[in-house]
Design a protein that fits this description.
- 2 copies of one chain form a homodimer.
- By secondary structure, the first copy, chain A, is α/β, with parallel strands linked by helices.
- The longest helix of chain A has 18 residues.
- A 6-stranded mixed sheet of chain A has the order 8-7-9-6-5-10. In chain A, strands 3-2-1-4-11 form a 5-stranded parallel sheet, sandwiched between helices.
- In chain A, 42% of the residues lie in helices and 19% in strands.
- Chains A and B meet through helix 8 and helix 10 of A and helix 8 and helix 10 of B.
């Protein structure tokens, strides 16, 4: 598979693959229904809508969406019950992707982590933003700016592995993972640089499969070969990073939003580490971002299949 | 004074003001000398060059720079001695701005903080990046992504006040300071949101002069009015922030570099909290950034005068 370097290539790949089935928890919301309908019309998904059937009908009528194109599961026991029923459709193999509707992220992720009906694996859940930025020849994967607050080293290992998996689904056989810090040197006064050193050395000792990890790297050394040369950094990752691994949620959230609000960009997002791809779009996401997120989930589901 | 909203306006204001005198510590380097000469030619500064006179002559000859336009202080006692002598020229009132040449940042800042000869005030030193970003109607001040690693609340207060000062020099009478976090709600599991709440409430109680502080805000709520409305945030700062205050060095460094490497931008930087403006450019900075940093220092010096 060719490496996917743009969101246009992502959409093409999602359309080329087999159509995937999305189970949507609590879809009774204009923006959620519009996103699902748009992806269905693009031909990349079909969907099972799990929520209050009456409300789903009202929203669909209002938006002119023909519900005969969907399977509706009427669940009136509230959001938690709907989320559990929706996730079970995925864990039982009757859908490929789990998608969030109008419920709190915490309630939604609790369904993912439910021991009986959820999508748990041995790994921690983590979040990745995927960005196409004008002027760069590849996508950037930013992880984790949403789910893990202040991951310890053990959690960071899972986050790296989760992100390597999604890169593989994007046709990147051996993604280059930059463990970001404020500087490119190991500094005992900066804990993120110590974790970075450990992760880099794990990579040297081949403790990661399917990715190359190096750090600490400052953002400029990670993405700009000129900047890396300027600093005299010898590294297979410096200047060529695919994954921008951040030390904590503030750094990741602000980096990802900086790309969205300051750069010419196209963005997708996904929760990783579950048995199936998990879509956690928020109301603030554009329709475009929701579409790319669904397409990313299709790619990951394809890759797992 | 009109609010300065672009780097072009910054240059115009620096040219309009009285010419400032820069004392450069260890200038014997091509890039440093080129930056000083370019600013001198723009008519915004004259400069005193403090370092190894022989080496300064060699660099000047190589670059075709006429040293008769400069005062050269020949100091061959090494970088630390040169830095101390250069900073004393500023603290004694014979120059307006202190600028870093070819020495380590730590050695340079130690001269700033020297008790006898330095530029200490009661406040902590802090760093601000100043960014012009395509599509925004104002400059953004990012603080602190360079000098303070993991500031406590007391230090954060100084950093806010330092940044308000530079905003005043840029004609912003009452800058809007967004204390950034990963979320816009106070979350006991996220320490930066607790400091943000304290700083915001200090602002409510009029404990800050010459600025309005609010937080926590996520980056999107801080810079986009649409995003702030979407979240239903009622705040005089949300969507209108001038200052993007970050919780730690990783967040600030990565945010600032994201603006430089991913957005269409123009950038300056300055160290604040000393008796005079302190320029800490690095080799990785473009010639343009060095010029804007010198012009920013001129503006701050003008404002202090």
């Amino acid at each position: 598979m060719e490496q996917i370097r743009t969101m246009a290539q992502l959409m093409a790949a999602a359309k080329q693959g087999e159509k995937k089935i999305v189970s949507v928890a609590v879809p009774e919301d204009d923006e959620v229904m519009e996103a699902v309908e748009a992806a269905r019309k693009e031909g990349i998904i079909s969907a099972i809508l799990v929520g209050n059937g009456e409300k789903i009908k009202t929203v669909a009528n209002k938006l002119g969406i023909d519900l005969s194109n969907y399977e509706v599961v009427d669940e009136r026991g509230g959001n938690t019950a709907a989320a559990l029923r929706a996730v079970e459709i995925v864990s039982s193999g009757n859908a490929d992707i789990f998608m969030k509707g109008m419920l709190h992220s915490a309630d939604y992720l609790r369904a993912v982590l439910n021991k009986e009906k959820g999508l748990r694996t041995g790994r921690v859940l983590s979040h990745a933003y995927i960005h196409e930025i004008e002027g760069y020849d590849r996508l950037f994967f930013v992880t984790d700016g949403v789910v893990n607050l202040y991951p310890d080293l053990k959690t960071k290992i899972d986050i790296v592995n989760n992100c390597a998996d999604i890169c593989h689904a994007f046709g990147l056989e051996c993604p280059k993972v930059a463990i970001l810090g404020a500087v490119e040197v190991v500094n005992v006064a900066m804990p993120p640089t110590l974790d970075a050193a450990a992760l880099a050395q794990m990579s040297n000792r081949k403790q990661f499969k399917g990715c190359i990890v190096d750090g600490p790297l400052a953002l400029d050394n990670a993405v700009s070969e000129e900047s890396a040369q300027h600093k005299g950094i010898v590294s297979p990752v410096a200047g060529k990073a695919d994954v921008l691994f951040v030390p904590n949620i503030e750094t990741g959230n602000i980096l990802a939003k900086s790309m969205v609000y300051f750069a010419r960009n196209k963005t997708a997002a996904l929760v990783l580490g579950a048995k199936a791809p998990v879509i956690l779009t928020s109301r603030a996401d554009s329709a475009e971002t929701k579409m790319y997120s669904i397409a990313s989930a299709c790619l990951v589901a394809q890759h797992k299949a």
